[in-house]
């Protein structure tokens, strides 16, 4: 006699596969990988279906149930959550008590409970009399294995699902923990059923096993669960109270071969469940390190990629070390964007006064105990000092500046770094830029050549200009080119920042990209879930990246989060004000007022004013915006003026920047008033229709 177990949780199948001498022969499958479930019913005496996400998680459920009813095969259907799924229980064809007990065995999990589930159903449904034990309560959380602890090292917690522990599917966790230890930290693997807190906001596993970690690598779902119904109960407070970096390590549902061949990098289900939703917890997104490969009986197992596991571990350990390194010893790189590659564009960032912000940031670091040396205390002086040291503008860069540059990478060092890249990336870089060191910003020739970087050092801080992506007739196209690999100069700059001081590098503990936006997160590679051959991964490596980014552009900020494991620090938009009317539009507004007065008091003058209005409309080229080719007739002119008046009101209400934001400084006096009024006036887009929701002032009927 055979029992068919269909579960969307592969860990159920792995646990069931390990059952020794089950009371019934087992047939195992994941419904997501079954084309026609009816074909699995031959010789089956009882069916158990477990669907994470409920009945709607599998389109084939109704067909299976119909076939079971027709063949008189008992059906036990349960959900994946802790509470009983009423809809699936109602669809079952066995008594409700049997469904509830079966769900309890599956909820507790593990090989022992799966074996007793088979015996329970054999006895109570098929009446075989084999006997069974009730479900065994297993720990809700705990430590996986025993690992040595070095008190001098930081500790990285690794959180994975309890179901993996109970099913013995833990080799991928072991590989990651080995990589954490190889990177210089203690690894503490912890299994847990969920990171969703209880009704009182408590998460016992955090207090019991994770309270003293320096960083946390998580492979489970977000604290709010996986669907919109959990939104109101979303609470990441327990993780936030740890006050440590929480990094999401990706365990993809695809095979490694499928991931490697994919430009997207992650299937939509993985992008949603393992990236987008965990971001609401504030987690930092790393890379995939585990993949599902087909095992015995077609049941997938998790298989780790040691190289990608090393990248996850390296990023985690680098973040963990930041807690223990004294501020006076921390080495930080402040990187300014430069787009296009002109001196006039150094420090260009949307809405941010980058030079002034850099000065304030350096001052704040000095106050916090960082060693920042003697730097120019004025933003203009700071950026001009940086430009005078060289920069990247080839129209102004001199041989003397190249020779005098402080930050330099010997060709031998760069060749060693370049040799560590995957062959595909090496080939692409050589194809576009020639053999190392290339021709960009190189001082000297032959084996003694050095790659020169645009940077100044103040104490333990390097202020650098981000290397250009390249040169050509269209620098804007190059800037956004999705296929152009980084130049040798680009790679050398970031590898020099990361390399230890004793190896000739700067030895940065972290990098700050100051303002939206640089080019690193737009380098070629997968959309997310990067491989070693993806340029952002190869360039940045394990370095922690902190990224002040304008708050009103989360879309582009997401690129840095997902492709460069960035910690995005939102900053305020620049001061905003109404555009108001000016020049011809101000004159036109005055003529409209005169027209209204003349219309009531001296209509004979109307033709003259109509002519003046139309002449001014043409002079300001407004007739194109108004979609009117010629002066309206006398009968149509009043309607035309209503159109003009509405247009002028819209233009006056347009929000424009009134200066730049300085990091850490809120606007004061009238700029603050104007910004608040702008927020209150702003209309919102809804359902793809601009202005469909009125601003707060208009909604309240207040004067504009």
UniProtKB/TrEMBL annotation:
A GO molecular-function descriptor: cobaltochelatase activity
Keywords (A to Z) from UniProt: Ligase
Origin organism lineage: Bacteria, Bacillati, Actinomycetota, Actinomycetes, Frankiales
Annotated ranges, domain CobN/magnesium chelatase: 104-700
Entry EC no(s): 6.6.1.2
Stated name of the protein: Aerobic cobaltochelatase CobN subunit
Broad EC category: ligase
InterPro entries: CobN/Mg_chltase (IPR003672)
Superkingdom: Bacteria
Native organism: uncultured Frankineae bacterium
Classification via Pfam families: CobN-Mg_chel (PF02514)
């Amino acid at each position: 006699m055979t029992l068919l177990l269909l579960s969307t949780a592969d860990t159920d199948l792995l646990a069931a596969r390990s059952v020794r001498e089950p009371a019934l022969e087992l047939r195992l499958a994941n419904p997501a990988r079954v084309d026609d479930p009816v074909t699995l019913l031959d010789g089956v005496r009882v069916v158990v279906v477990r669907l994470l996400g409920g009945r709607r998680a599998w389109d084939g459920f109704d067909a299976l149930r119909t076939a079971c009813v027709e063949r008189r095969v008992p059906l036990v259907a349960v959900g994946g959550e802790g509470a009983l799924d009423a809809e699936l229980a109602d669809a079952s064809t066995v008594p409700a008590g049997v469904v509830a007990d079966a769900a309890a065995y599956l909820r507790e999990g593990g090989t022992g409970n799966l074996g007793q589930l088979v015996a329970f159903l054999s006895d109570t449904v098929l009446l075989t009399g084999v006997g069974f034990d009730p479900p065994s309560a297993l720990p809700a959380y705990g430590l996986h294995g025993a690992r040595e602890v070095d008190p001098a090292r930081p500790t990285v917690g690794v959180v994975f699902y309890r179901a993996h522990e109970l099913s013995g599917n833990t080799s991928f966790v072991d590989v990651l923990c080995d990589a954490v230890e190889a990177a210089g930290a203690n690894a503490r693997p912890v299994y847990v059923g969920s990171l969703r807190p209880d009704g009182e906001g408590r998460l016992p596993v955090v207090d019991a096993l994770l309270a003293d970690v320096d960083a946390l690598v998580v492979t489970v779902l977000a604290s709010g669960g996986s669907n919109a119904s959990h939104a109101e109960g979303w609470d990441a407070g327990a993780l936030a109270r740890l006050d440590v970096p929480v990094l999401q390590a990706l365990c993809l549902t695809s095979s490694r071969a499928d991931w490697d061949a994919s430009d997207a990098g992650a299937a939509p289900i993985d992008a949603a469940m393992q990236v987008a939703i965990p971001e609401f917890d504030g987690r930092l997104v790393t890379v995939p390190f585990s993949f599902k490969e087909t095992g015995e009986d077609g049941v997938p197992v998790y298989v780790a990629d040691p190289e990608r596991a090393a990248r996850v571990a390296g990023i985690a350990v680098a973040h963990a070390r930041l807690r223990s390194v004294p501020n006076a010893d921390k080495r930080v790189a402040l990187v300014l964007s430069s787009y296009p590659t002109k001196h006039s564009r150094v420090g260009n960032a949307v809405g941010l006064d980058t030079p002034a912000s850099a000065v304030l940031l350096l001052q704040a670091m000095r106050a916090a105990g960082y060693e920042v040396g003697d730097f120019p205390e004025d933003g203009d002086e700071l950026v001009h000092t940086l430009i005078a040291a060289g920069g990247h503008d080839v129209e102004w860069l001199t041989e003397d500046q190249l020779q005098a540059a402080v930050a330099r990478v010997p060709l031998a060092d760069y060749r060693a770094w370049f040799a560590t890249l995957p062959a595909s990336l090496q080939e692409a870089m050589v194809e576009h830029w020639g053999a190392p060191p290339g021709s960009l910003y190189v001082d000297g020739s032959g084996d003694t050549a050095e790659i020169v970087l645009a940077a100044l050092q103040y104490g333990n801080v390097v202020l650098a200009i981000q290397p250009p992506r390249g040169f050509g007739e269209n620098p804007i196209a190059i800037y956004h080119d999705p296929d152009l690999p980084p130049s040798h100069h680009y790679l050398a700059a970031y590898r020099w920042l990361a390399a230890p001081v004793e190896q000739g590098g700067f030895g940065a503990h972290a990098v700050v990209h100051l303002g939206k936006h640089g080019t690193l997160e737009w380098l070629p590679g997968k959309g997310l879930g990067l491989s070693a051959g993806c340029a952002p991964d190869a360039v940045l490596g394990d370095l922690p990246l902190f990224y002040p980014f304008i708050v009103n552009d989360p879309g582009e900020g997401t690129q840095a989060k997902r492709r460069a494991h960035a910690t995005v620090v939102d900053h305020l938009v620049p001061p905003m004000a109404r555009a108001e009317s000016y020049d011809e539009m101000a004159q036109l507004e005055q003529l409209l007022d005169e027209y209204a007065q003349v219309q009531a008091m001296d209509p004979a003058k109307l033709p003259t004013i109509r002519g003046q209005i139309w002449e001014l409309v043409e002079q300001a080229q407004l007739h194109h915006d108004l979609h009117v080719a010629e002066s309206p007739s006398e009968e149509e002119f009043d309607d035309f003026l209503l159109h003009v008046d509405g247009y002028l009101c819209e233009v006056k209400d347009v929000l424009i920047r009134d200066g730049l934001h300085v990091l850490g400084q809120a606007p004061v006096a009238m700029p603050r008033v104007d910004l608040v009024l702008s927020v209150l006036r702003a209309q919102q887009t809804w359902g793809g229709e601009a202005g469909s929701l009125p601003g707060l002032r208009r909604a309240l009927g207040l004067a504009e």
